Amino acid sequence: MALMDDLLKGLALDKVISGGGVPGAVVGIGALLLAPVLIPVVAGAGKPVAKAVIKEGIKLYEKGKESFAEVGEVFEDLIAEAKAELAEDDKTSTNNQPQPIVVSD
């Protein structure tokens, strides 16, 4: 009994009562009693949500890969067109060079 009196008068009980008051202690005790019931429920509800988030992430990743592949193809096409235009410009610029005119007396 002396041990119980010491615990009731002890620093831990003073902290509980001064920190959260009696309602805080009741909520804490209630949470401890309900934890075995609430943890599986929260875990059970959290698992489908986590799976849904992961599935959406995978979908977005795959869509992103497709988009980047398309952008890469368009970029490669633009590079090929630019190179072809440069080659055409080089070909026409050599044909359009002024030719010397020879005048004979």
How is this fold's topology laid out?
Blueprint: H1 2-9, H2 11-95
Describe the structure.
This protein has 105 residues and is mostly helical. It is 89% helix and 0% strand. It contains two helices and no strands. The chain starts with a helix and ends in a 10-residue tail after the last helix. The mean pLDDT is 74.
Instruction: Give the overall silhouette.
Output: rod-shaped
Give the mean pLDDT: 74
> How much helical structure, as a percent, in the residues?
over 70%
Percent strand: under 5%
* Whole-angstrom Rg: 40 Å
What is the number of helices? Answer: 2
Give the structure's gist in a few sentences.
Keywords: Membrane, Transmembrane, Transmembrane helix. This is DUF5132 domain-containing protein. This protein is mainly alpha-helical.
List keywords for this structure.
105 residues, mainly alpha, 2 helices, 89% helix, 0% strand
